[in-house]
């Protein structure tokens, strides 16, 4: 089969379509013909050598896709089933082997590209905001990077839950995009201090920045607030004022989806399909595709996401459905 | 009535018995004649001017007591009921007004002094280890200060839950006391690096140190581990390595009981009585009274707790039962 490899492992832009062995599904896995794959920041990190696949996972990039089952193996699925897939790797390819617990039906009315665009964000946002932080109606959520793939999804999901949503972004255009999706409080981080605007107000914070925002995030937390860190774009080490955290009875969690074990992923996938798929089918939460590139031009897809000028997801089209 | 006041507010050792107004119970409160009161580190901090009572609470020290209801007010309790009480303040006195949700029956077979010795620790340990961190059978708990009031209780409770228990303490004598209570892994922090001994092993950590142990605690956390900070004896600001926390999908919470609202306290008290009182009645978890002083000698009680040489709780005897 064809798949994207790094022609020069030391050059993160050398993404090249090459002939590689088609994967053999292990027991409990199905073989899926990939129609579309999502591009994530984790793929950019992997290309740069900073985010190796967990043990046992494919060495190929690609953390989500949608396609057609060609060999269901021992799973409950059937040949020809159209599925969305949460992957530990392997999506940038014509075929991928997927554990049963990470196979989902397509959301009703969704194309392969649309489905591939929401797997990682839906599982990430649902598992962190609701399963971990317990976000619920009447609470206030602060989202950093509101215009990104995670952010645009989180805004809509939190509004669907009945929350007040604050976002940070770096331009008026991005903030306007957030507003259109339902965000209530728009903060341009180049002009305003989000810690001041949101002081003691955020019940939950979804953060992709890490160290640079750590102290400001604690200032923004409300009583019993929960800071959930899912990215480290602003560095890894920061000073934590534990007395301030304690004065709010606050919690900090730092999480990632990729290295979770199969059971954990299956639990998250099942809960996400149960609660988020109906919102997708109803259009309450919509997909946000920024651009689609052919698999052979994965390099341009990575460049687009790396530019920071993306509102929504970048997709690789792999096969015609 | 008589109560302990600071004769010289600038001198934390000037604890003196004085005549003060007897409190008037507000609606939903009962008046309790105090028979015994527990001494907590929070009282030491309050005497030193660092831990003011929350708004509306008594200015008098004392976060827990046991005694007899003299005026049940509108509560479901009756005059003459023997009760243990979780307090936001006011225990170092002959009478205290207590919200209904913070009144508990005495554990079966317990004296007033014994009951007064376990209210704060039972509610603190249960709410943090089980209600917050979800500690359960088969997990490993690391307790810092294993020989203190919190530590001795946490060891026994965690063993009752079926956990492996590791403790740190500063002397062989204290570690031996922990071992007798059931601790499995004994770490003398003056000789050994607990982060090395417990590296990646602790599902839950109960910490009273704060900043000084922050990085080492993150090193000790297991996958999906939860660090719960309930004291800041080792400082308030520390460097947090968020990447390390993320690699373990770890969580950090910092909590305190005193400033919680009435509803929250009532929820914690009810859950603690339901789950911990039977363990006390059965003797599975025992009280640990280190010394008892008369109320008039609260200064000596504070000096004893401040010395760091205490194994278990310090109690003030207020009235004969």
Give an overview in words.
Two copies of one chain form a homodimer. Chain A is α/β, with parallel strands linked by helices and 321 residues long. Chain A has two domains: 2-119 and 258-317, Quinone Oxidoreductase, Chain A, domain 1 (Alpha-Beta Complex); 133-254, Rossmann fold (3-Layer(aba) Sandwich). Helix content of chain A is 29%, strand content 29%. Chain A contains eleven helices and 16 strands. In chain A, strands 3, 4, 5, 6, 7, 15 and 16 form a seven-stranded mixed sheet that branches. The longest helix of chain A has 14 residues, at 119-132. The two termini of chain A are 17 Å apart. In chain A, 53% of the residues are buried. The model of chain A has no long low-confidence stretch (mean pLDDT 95). At the A-B interface, strand 13, helix 8 and strand 14 of A face strand 13, helix 8 and strand 14 of B.
Largest interface: A-B, 26 and 26 residues
Count of individual helical segments of chain A: 11
**Relative helix content of chain A:** 25-40%
Topology, number of strands of chain A = 16
- Silhouette of chain A: globular
Q: Roughly what is the average pLDDT of chain A, rounded to an integer?
A: 95
Name the helix and strand elements of chain A from N-terminus to C-terminus, one letter apiece.
EEEHEEEEHHEHEHEHEHEEHEHHEHE
- Given helix and strand content, the structural type of chain A is alpha/beta
What fraction of the residues of chain A are assigned to beta strands by DSSP?
A: 25-35%
Per CATH, the architecture of the largest domain in chain A is Alpha-Beta Complex
Gap from first CA to last CA of chain A: 17 Å
In total, the number of domains of chain A comes to 2
CATH class of the largest domain in chain A: Alpha Beta
Q: Classify the fold: give the CATH topology of the largest domain in chain A.
A: Quinone Oxidoreductase, Chain A, domain 1
Q: Let me know the CATH homologous superfamily of the largest domain in chain A.
A: Medium-chain alcohol dehydrogenases, catalytic domain
Instruction: Give the biggest sheet of chain A.
Output: 7 strands, mixed
C-alpha Rg of chain A, in Å? Answer: 19 Å
Unreliable stretches covering 5 or more consecutive residues of chain A:
none
Oligomer: homodimer
InterPro entries (chains A, B): ADH-like_C, ADH-like_N, ER, GroES-like_sf, NAD(P)-bd_dom_sf, Quin_OxRdtase/zeta-crystal_CS, Quinone_OxRdtase_PIG3
Domain Enoyl reductase (ER) (chains A, B): 12-316
Keywords (chains A, B): NADP, Oxidoreductase
Protein name (chains A, B): NAD(P)H-quinone oxidoreductase
